[in-house]
C-alpha cells in the first residue's frame, strides 16, 4: 500500500456517505473517511489521521464536482475550520437525502430493518438560523470561537449563521475582549410553540 508522505495530498474517487458528515473513499485498498466532499466527486485530500484500518482526510481541492455542491453556507466550517456544519457545501435537498441514506443504512446494518427514510426540512429549509444555543471558547487573545474539527485548537469566529438571529445580533460577540480561554454559552428562546 502506498502511504503518502506527510502533508502530500492524495487523489480520491469519492464513494457513499458515511455516518458523521464524511464520505467513504479508498486509496490503494485503504478505507479513507474524507470530509468536505460528496459522493461521485474526485478530490485532492490531505490525510489528517492514520489508523491501522482506515485514514481520515479533508478535501483541499475539488477536481470533479458533484452537481449537488454549492457555495459553503459557512466558510469558517470548511476544511481546517470549525466543526458543526459538515454538510454546509451540499444543496439542502441533497443534504436531506444524504441524511436519509445514512439513517436507512444504520437501521439496516444495526437493526436489520429495511425502511425508506425521509428527512423533512426544518424552518425555511436553508439549514441556517435554527440553533438556539451555541457554546464558544475564547482563544489566547480573547476572541470567541469554536474548536477546529477533531482538534483542541480554537478558531476565532466572525459569524455564526447556524444560530437564530437573536444570537447572531448580539453586539460585540465576535469582536474580542473576553478573558483568554473562557467559555461562553449564548442562548435564545425558540420561536417554536
The helical percent reads 10-25%
Major sheet description:
5 strands, mixed, barrel
Question: Which regions have little confidence, pLDDT < 50, spanning 5+ residues?
Answer: none
Large-scale geometry: globular
Q: How much β-strand is present in the residues? A: 25-35%
Structural class by SSE content: alpha+beta
What string gives the helices and strands in order?
EEEEEHEEEHE
Radius of gyration: 18 Å
> What's the count of strands?
9
Account of the 3D structure:
With 193 residues, this protein is of the alpha+beta class. It is built from 2 helices and 9 strands; from the N terminus they run E-E-E-E-E-H-E-E-E-H-E. It has helices at 92-111, 165-168, and strands at 10-17, 23-27, 30-35, 42-50, 54-64, 133-138, 144-147, 154-156, 183-187. Strands 1-2-3-5-4 form a 5-stranded mixed beta barrel. The longest helix is centred in the middle third of the chain and has 20 residues, at 92-111. The radius of gyration is 18 Å and the shape is globular. It starts with 9 loop residues before the first strand and ends in a 6-residue tail after the last strand.
Please describe the structure with a list of short key phrases separated by commas or semicolons.
single chain, 193 residues, alpha+beta, 5-stranded mixed beta barrel, 4-stranded antiparallel sheet, 2 helices
Amino acid at each position: 500500500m502506498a502511504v503518502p508522505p506527510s502533508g502530500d495530498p492524495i487523489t480520491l474517487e469519492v464513494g457513499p456517505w458515511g455516518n458523521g458528515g464524511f464520505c467513504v473513499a479508498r486509496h490503494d485498498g485503504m478505507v479513507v473517511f474524507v470530509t468536505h466532499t460528496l459522493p461521485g466527486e474526485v478530490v485532492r485530500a490531505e490525510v489528517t489521521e492514520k489508523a491501522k484500518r482506515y485514514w481520515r482526510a479533508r478535501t483541499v481541492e475539488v477536481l470533479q464536482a458533484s452537481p449537488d455542491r454549492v457555495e459553503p453556507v459557512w466558510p469558517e466550517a470548511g476544511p481546517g475550520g470549525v466543526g458543526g456544519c459538515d454538510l454546509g457545501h451540499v444543496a439542502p435537498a441533497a443534504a436531506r437525502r444524504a441524511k436519509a441514506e445514512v439513517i436507512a443504512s444504520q437501521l439496516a446494518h444495526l437493526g436489520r430493518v429495511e425502511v425508506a427514510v425521509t428527512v423533512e426540512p426544518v424552518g425555511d429549509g436553508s439549514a441556517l438560523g435554527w440553533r438556539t444555543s451555541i457554546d464558544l471558547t475564547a482563544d489566547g487573545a480573547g476572541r470567541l470561537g469554536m474548536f477546529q474539527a477533531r482538534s483542541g485548537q480554537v478558531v476565532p469566529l466572525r459569524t455564526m449563521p447556524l444560530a437564530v438571529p437573536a444570537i447572531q445580533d448580539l453586539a460585540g460577540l465576535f469582536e474580542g475582549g473576553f478573558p483568554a480561554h473562557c467559555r461562553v454559552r449564548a442562548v435564545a428562546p425558540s420561536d417554536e410553540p
